[in-house]
Amino acid sequence: MRLLADLHTHTTASGHAYSSLQELVAAASAKGLELIAVTDHGPTVPQGSHPWYFWNLKAVPSVIDGVRILKGCEASLSLESENGIDLPDDLLCLLDFVSVGFHPLTGFDDLDRAKNTAALLRVIANPSVDQITHPGNEHEFPLDLDEVVAAAAEHRVILELNDHSFSLTSARAGSAEREREFAAAAVLAGAPIAIGSDAHFAFHVGRFDSALRAAKEIGLTRDELINRDAASVLEFLGSKRKRPRLDMGGAWVSDRGGRRV
Q: Residue 64: CB partners within 8 Å, gap ≥ 6?
C-alpha cells in the first residue's frame, strides 16, 4: 500500500522539531509525495507558535516543486479558551487543515477519562476541525473510545493512525495497541481515517511503515484512507467546508530561480 499524502508534519516553528518547511517539502518531493500538511503546534505547547504565525501562513506558497502544501496546525485542547482549542475559531476557519490533539503540560495531565472525553467531543463538533491526532495515547490521555469514534463518524472528523505512536523513540511508546483499537473501531463506524507520520525531522516525512503494518492487521484498506493522494485529501476537505486560503501563495518552482508560476 502506497500513500502519497502526509497530513501530520512539523517544522522548527513547533519548538521541538528540527527541519524547515523547505526541508520538509524537499523530502516529500524526493519520496514522491503529492501533498503534505504542515501542522505546527499551537501556543499552549511549550515553545509552540504564536497565533500570528498561523495568521501569516498565507505567505507560504500553496505548491512548491509540485508538492501541494496545506497550511494548517496541530492545535491543542484548552480548558481556558472559548472554543476549547488553543487557537480561536476566526483563525481556524482560515487554515487549510486543522488538526487537534492532546499534549503534555496543556491542562490535561490528570488522567481523567471523563474530562478528556467531554473536552474532545466538544472539539470534534467544531466545524473547523478536520482531524484528531494520535487518539490512542491511553497512558497519558485516556478517552472513551466508543463515544469519540461515534462523534468522529457523525461529524466526519478524521481519526489519525499515527505512525510515530509505534516507534520505540516516541513519548507515546506503549500506546500502539490502543491506536490500533481506535483505527479498527473507526473502520466499523465509518469514521474517516488517515495515517500520519508526525514527522519532527524531514527524513521522517511520509514514513508510514509501522502504521501500515497495523492497518493490514486490522483489515484497513487503502480505499478507506483519506490520505491516499492529493486528490482524495482535497476532495474530502472540500466536502466539509470552504478553505478561503487554499490556493493563496500560488505555485513556486525552485529550478526556475524560485519564481512564481
A: 22, 25, 251, 252, 254
Structural domains in the chain, CATH included, are 5-260 (3.20.20.140)
For residue 177, pLDDT over 70 is answered with yes
Alpha helices, H only, 73-203: 89-92, 113-124, 145-155, 176-189
Residue 161 contacts residue 197 (beta carbons within 8 Å): no
Whole-structure pTM value: 0.95
**Can you tell me which residue has the cell 482560515?**
94
pLDDT band at 258 (very low <50, low <70, confident <90, very high): low
Cβ(36)–Cβ(6) below 8 Å? yes
Q: 145-155 and 176-189 helices cross at what angle (nearest 10)?
A: 50
pLDDT band at 256 (very low <50, low <70, confident <90, very high): low
- 222 Cβ contact list (under 8 Å, min separation 6): 1, 2, 3, 228
- Name residues whose C-beta falls within 8 Å of residue 168's C-beta, 6 or more positions apart in sequence: none
Q: What pLDDT is recorded for position 174?
A: 73
* Rounded Cα distance, 213 and 141, in Å: 24
Please tell me the number of Cα atoms within 13 Å of 150 on its side-chain side: 6
Neighbouring residues of 104: CB distance < 8 A, sequence distance ≥ 6: 140, 171
